[in-house]
User: Fold this.
Amino acid sequence: MARVTTEALALRRTPFRETSQIAEFLTRDRGRVGLILKGVMRPKSRMGGGVDLLDHCRVTYTARRGSRSMPPLVERQVLSHHPGMRHREDLMRAGLYMLELLRALVPEGQRVPGLFGLSVAFLAALDTEPEPGRLAPMTFALEGGLLRMTGFELVLDRCVSCHRRPEGSMALRCDPQRGGIVCSTCRDDEDGNYVPLSSASARLIMGLTGADPLRLRGLTLPENIENDVRRFFDRTFLHVLERPPRAAVMSQR
Ligand SMILES: [Zn+2]
Assistant:
């Protein structure tokens, strides 16, 4: 048996028996890990109650090599409960949207330390209570980073078919199914299922992808660009998830 200590975010949790919980975490060092929290709902539990979604914590558990049973959580220390995020509904919604994307896109059994770091930074940025108008660039940085780190990033700097780079401020057409932008020569069907995207928006997406959300707090975007980029990510996630995200944050404004 090996004892593992790593940082973690709870992706989901369900009650188990009378006093226990089963929780799935995204961890910095081990990817997704399911743990059983024995007796955690007992009033006198040493683990301080059940797990809350979106808590950033440090967990210790015993990993049994080759064992099929779920390892028990031994110790948990909450590093941040994000109180600033929790008292505003729009910020909570953004946090839950992130969880939904992580649950859907992070493969089992894969270490994703970069994505873990980006997720923690996004929650920390939400916890600073940015004005509602400043939320979009942070969310775009997360969405772009998530797509890149899970292998779903779209090509935006050249045509996916002929590899020609778009010139100047050309209006672009993006096809999530084909993996990125398609130039007018390579488009076989003008009325196809393309997402329109301005060159400025495409450059912005590439610039924001994977950027530290905390550093984007001072940034506001022109409304037309924000709408353009919002539509781009909505359509891209619709393609990747094969359904609209349930917690679609931004498009409901
Ligand atoms: Zn082309």
